[in-house]
Amino acid sequence: MIDEQSKKIIVSCQDVHKWYNPEFEVLKGVSYDFYKGEVAVIIGPSGSGKSTFIRTINALEEHQQGRIIVNGIELTHNIKNINAVRDQCGMVFQSFNLFPHLTVLDNITLAPIWVKKKNKKEAEERGMELLRRVKIEKQAYKYPGQLSGGEQQRVAIARSLAMDPQIMLFDEPTSALDPEMIKEVLDVMTELAHSNITLIVITHELAFAKAVADHIIFFDNGQIIETGKPSDFFGNPKEARTKEFLSKILHH
Amino acid sequence: MNDLKNGQPFVEKRTPLSIVNMYILKNPILFWIKKNLFDTILSTILTIFSVWLLVKLLFGLIIPIISMNWTVIGDNLKLILTGSYPISQLWRAWLCVSYISLFGGASFGLASRKIPKAMVAILLLEGLLITLPFSGLAKFFLAANIVLSVAGFFLIRAFGKSKRLRIIVVAWIVFLPFAFICILGFTGQGGFWPVVATNYWGGLLLSLLIALTSIALSFPIGLLLALGRRSGLKFIKVVCTILIEVVRGVPLITILFIAYLIVPLALPKSMNPSVFIRAMIGIIMFHSAYMAEDFRGGLQGIPRTQYEAAASLNLSKAKTMILVILPQVFKRMIPVLVSRLTGIIKDTSLISIIGLLDMIGISSAIISNPKYMTSSPQVLFFMAVIYFVICYSISLASTKIEKNLGISTKQGASL
Q1: Nearest-CA distance from B389 to chain A in Å?
Q2: Using one digit for the tens of pLDDT, what is the confidence trace for A12-66?
Q3: B408 contacts A145? CB cut-off 8 A
Q4: Is A100's CB within 8 Å of B411's CB?
Q5: Domains assigned to chain B
Q6: Is A86 within 8 Å of B415 when comparing Cβ atoms?
Q7: Among A38, B91, B226, B243, which residue has the fewest nearby CB atoms (within 10 Å)?
């Protein structure tokens, strides 16, 4: 939910460029401001650079030109700034990336204990609370390998939430899931959308985007082609490239 | 088929052969023999060949070995086990065995609720040894060790669940320093715990001390070398790579000869380490390099996404390594590490070449005694049995550990 009165910018990207090698430019000058509390959904064809873009926001990928400012902190080579930004950004990956050698609860409490220096009991209480929130508290003492994909992804969301992030980045969180598990993950994300955490979501679930997003961002060929409110974006797209993309994915 | 459908038994025309077949089908033992040993012509031929081979082995090897004169082992048992370690100080070696018994029992107690078969076997073996005509000291310690193992098994449960594992881990880490101080001694001659110089150490005692120390040190050194080789700092990376590749390119025997012949020439006379120390450094260097390559392989098996997940949670690089990456590496590497451990134990036999009297060194000394000249097969066979028992128990233990860690290994495979 956007805080309409203050409309505070929380992530500001200004002309962000990234090259993987001198010939291959993935991000060709991306500028966009995300507002505090909003749900921004990024869509676009695969290989368009949208995944690389959100990975630059928590410095998993380095950008070579332009500025990224997260909650007043500019991402530079300075490791202190990178840590300060990562402190505010949670990230959920397409392939969950849980730690297979730890139980579900230990996955969640690892970072609070070792990064935030919480004591074990406090961290575990909070962990159980989060597991209840994603409706999976019965699996707390199992290992990730014993859970279904949907359950693993919900654990991954709880693991990010345990660090109390202001911003959550979702990199295609449902793409690796069976259809019947997609809903359980989207339900958790919908619930998060009503909190004041800023969500930046890459997804192909257009129904979710229409229902929950405050803004849609269409990405193609390393650039933002078009942005807008869901009703405008889906109802009345302006750019030809957007129309073409939407017609392809709406008619399959 | 029709008969079966109508619920009637399948009846065949009764030829003599079919009567025999019927008889075989009814008898489970005969059925098993027919199915597994004489099912086809090929398996019949193989069965006959195997039986012939077994009979040959029995009469050509096993019976002659058993009927040999084994007094050579009894006469030299003390030498084989401890070399020329003074008899008056043998209790120190026994003290180390007692330490192992106590915490070995405690480790079993940590792993299972009922006394496991392996522990029962060890206790029975110790009981059996008491009945043999050994010295009073040996009998006393064997009996004490049985008591200590059982005591350790039950006492570990007196501690809280979270403390148990910590106690066991600390106990095993402390074991090697304890063993060295215990065996080496720390008071002057005539004192309560006199120093016994390393050139008196020998036999199984020496082999095990060198093997255990090599394992305990080459494991962390190998890990550091592997991490150094992946380091972002060019200097560290180059140094580690050169160290690993140079050592791996040279046979262990050569390294031992260098340690034996060249190191004393290179060092000033005042700081000339004993052959024991020199040999140990050589062995540790050699195995660290191989261990480093094992670790490098293990590290490469961890997907990049694990590092990313840890980074997104703001774990520092060091914490990512210790909390996330290495536990997974260790788990995956158990089979490789075990084969490396048994390799190290067997490789220690090479130190006999530079004059150290480990088990192999002692055995060649015994064989060269004219009194025992005809007994060399017995001595060598006994050595082989000791090495086999040690190495085979290690690999049995590792299979057990792998099974216990099965859950997470399954997950590792699915990643």
Answers
A1: 32
A2: 999 999 998 888 889 999 999 999 999 999 999 988 999 999 999 999 999 999 9
A3: yes
A4: yes
A5: 1-35 (no CATH), 86-196 (no CATH), 204-405 (1.10.3720.10)
A6: no
A7: B91
